[in-house]
Write the structure tokens for this entry.
Amino acid sequence: VEGMVRLRISYADFYSTIGYTKFVDRLTSVLAITQDRLRIVNVAEGSTIVEWYITSSLSTSQLRQKELQELSDKSLALYHSGHLDLGAPILDFTSQVVTASGQVITSDSSTFTKKKISVVVYVILALAMLSVLIAIIVGITKVIKISKAYKEVANLDTVEYEKGADKSDVVGDSKLDKEIP
């Protein structure tokens, strides 16, 4: 049996109040198995997540599978009845048995269901990405045009510009000021 339990207790509090030894004592006593058959594989943060496995002492694979399935079912039944006390409130509990052929038989108390993303969401995301791409292209185009205009203004001969600012020069150079024959 491979199992996982998520306890509502901090990682630090788990080690200061429960720890490996008390956890193993509690789980083996409710399952009525010896401690040498239970191994803690991992303890991780996220509330506190404890992963373990239980081995079988029986000789044939059919008997081992049956015993391990019974232990898995018993642990799940204890959890659902509220009689599984591991030292802290249980948020999630799972167990699985792997058969000799490699088939996994899973039992759990999890309320997690895999969420399916609708095709509409993918279409909306694609349109959003397209609009962002268009906005980037338009922005780059505007930056290029503005930089070209700035370069043209920066390269103007300021002396000629100042001459053109004098009204008499501007009017005198105009084609409209010339006499028509």
